[in-house]
Amino acid sequence: MNRALVFGVLVLAVAFPLAMRSLDQVYYVTMASRFLIYALAATSLNLVLGYGGMISFGHAAFVGAGAYTASVMIVEGLPSAWLAWPLAMAVSGLLALAIGAISLRTRGVYFIMITLAFAQMIYYLTISMKAYGGDEGLTLTQRATVGFGLDLKDDITFYYVVLAILVAAVYLISRLVDARFGRVIQAIRENETRMEAIGYPAFRYKLAAFALAGALGGLAGALLANQNSYVNPGILHWTESGKLMIMVILGGVGQLYGGIIGAIGLLGLEELLANHKIGWLAAIYPNYQQHSLLAVGLALLAVVLYAPQGIAGLFSRRGRK
Amino acid sequence: MTGPLLEIEGLQKHFGGVVATDQVSLGVMRGEIHALIGPNGAGKTTLIAQISGSLAPDAGRILFGGADITRQPQHTRVAGGLARSYQITSIFKRFSVTQNLALAVQARSGTSFRFWQPVARETALEDEARAIAAQVGLGERVDAIAGSLAHAEQRSLEVGLALATNPKLLLLDEPMAGMGPDESQRMIGLIQALREKVSVLLVEHDMDAVFRLADRISVLVNGAIIATGTPDEIRVNPEVKRAYLGDEVSA
């Protein structure tokens, strides 16, 4: 995608909270933070699903593990983000390493099912964690602390922290996919058998990509828990994994900005349909808000049929590499 | 240094009740082009898969340069100098010719756990990839996307990928498959030129190529080797004639 466009969007993203504050609409800043956190989660999934060709149906487990790690740290009186967030990444990364070490020995539909099964196991595990709320969830008395005079309780500050992390993560992935490692995982996606035959231990590279994506997913989870000041097992439910997959497919599989576009597109559509009555639509079909998921389904169908490289693919001149 | 580079002893492989590899023993000398021929379904590709390491044998040993590699994973064998090509073209279709070959060069040039520097700026990889492209006759096509190449060009890239691993022994599985006469001649020339540096185990149905290139020929029928010898010996071997060659030799 064109550099000027990316820069323009970034300027808008930086200016957005200031504009909302002057319009006295800080609610939208909170909403935007949530969109950006999901953008990070979807981008991390896109690393394995898009670039690595591994159809993981359990990414919510890593997001959830990160969310719970960050939450437990706050509940246990260690609210420093500098401690809790790297720890959330480490826990999710190690969990992905363990799940990947077993799952990546399978292929195709078996891989999809086994990642789903592991994620559901972690989901039920969090339900049974009575010390940390069980299925009631865990309410956080405060957000993490970062020092430097920044207060994450302020929604605008929190937004900028999330934005900075997302930009850093996307830049990291943009370097990675053009580096040796990135070329290797994309080549494994294309032809794993041949990669073995020219001397690559494909499993190791796939596992490394899977663990890295898990760690980034964990960071998104830590941010999400802080944003809501609340976490419950629902964040690990398989429908959350499905939602992240829909975001990636909608935005663009294997496209650098696919996760961001898909997350904002999907959540934006949901928000629009659920909370803003559209006059002309209500006039022809009064119950449309009860069937808002139908619109998501239609949008997904349109993308799969007419834009297999997702919305990002429509902007990208080079197409998927 | 002479002596066998590859030694196979009593290799055995079953698929259910079917014996795909039946007590195969075989040697490839250093500097030798050794052809493996046999009718369709004789188990040639299965044998190549076991030597290259993508398929585990049920019994028997494989020695490469004197070391037992029977339990080595494929990528370790490749690093040690044992590479294969495929009968059914197996390349990276979305990648350019240079990128295809550079991948194979990269595999043996330091770690690929590098996450920051763009690989496109590693000119050493690209230079070597271009040299190999020229060697297999793709010097004019280095920037073409592999999937857009003509069939014979894809076959050249197929062999080029194996060659780019810098092997001591090349396992070529029907390199001439689907090629026209001119293209086959070029491939024969390429294999001929390789014999200086690389030993070759050649599976091929093109008997003209086999008899021109091979120092020795082994004949595989129903998973078992029924004869090994020089082209002249194989030509007159009555068992081979009966089992397989028949028409093609008298023709």
Task: Tell me what the structure shows.
- The complex is a heterodimer of chains A (321) and B (251).
- By secondary structure, chain A is mostly helical.
- Chain A is built from 14 helices and two strands, in the order αααααβααααβααααα.
- Chain A has a single domain (3-315), classed as ABC transporter involved in vitamin B12 uptake, BtuC, CATH 1.10.3470.
- Chain A has a two-stranded antiparallel sheet with strand order 1-2.
- By secondary structure, chain B is of the alpha/beta class.
- Chain B has helices at residues 44-52, 74-79, 97-107, 123-135, 151-163, 181-194, 207-213, 231-236, 238-245, 247-250, and strands at residues 4-15, 18-29, 33-37, 59-64, 67-68, 82-84, 169-173, 199-203, 216-221, 224-229.
- In chain B, strands 6-7-8-3-9-10 form a six-stranded mixed sheet, with helices on both faces. Chain B has a four-stranded antiparallel sheet with strand order 2-1-4-5, with helices on one face.
- The chains are: A mainly alpha (321), B alpha/beta (251).
- The A-B interface holds A 172, 175-176, 178-184, 187, 190-191, 193-201, 205, 208, 320-321 and B 52, 54, 73-75, 78-79, 83-84, 86, 90-95, 99, 103-104, 106-108, 111-120, 122, 161-162, 164-165.
Q: What number is the mean pLDDT of chain A?
A: 91
> Main beta sheet of chain B, described?
6 strands, mixed
What value does the Rg of chain B take, in angstroms? 18 Å
The CATH architecture term of chain B is 3-Layer(aba) Sandwich
The 3D shape of chain B can be described as globular
Which CATH class of chain A?
Mainly Alpha
As a percent range, the share of helical residues of chain B equals 25-40%
Number of domains of chain B: 1
Largest sheet of chain A: 2 strands, antiparallel
Q: Which structural class do the helices and strands of chain A define? A: mainly alpha
- CATH superfamily membership of chain B: P-loop containing nucleotide triphosphate hydrolases
What is the CATH C-level name of chain B?
A: Alpha Beta
Query: Helices and strands of chain B, in N-to-C order?
Result: EEEHEEHEHHHEHEHEEHHH
Q: What spatial order of strands do you see in the largest sheet of chain B?
A: 6-7-8-3-9-10
Number of strands of chain A: 2
Mean pLDDT of chain B: 92
How many angstroms separate the termini of chain B? 39 Å
The largest beta-sheet of chain A arranges its strands as 1-2
Question: From the helix content, strand content and strand pairing of chain B, which structural class follows?
Answer: alpha/beta
Estimate the global geometry of chain A from the Cα principal axes: globular
- Count of DSSP strands of chain B: 10
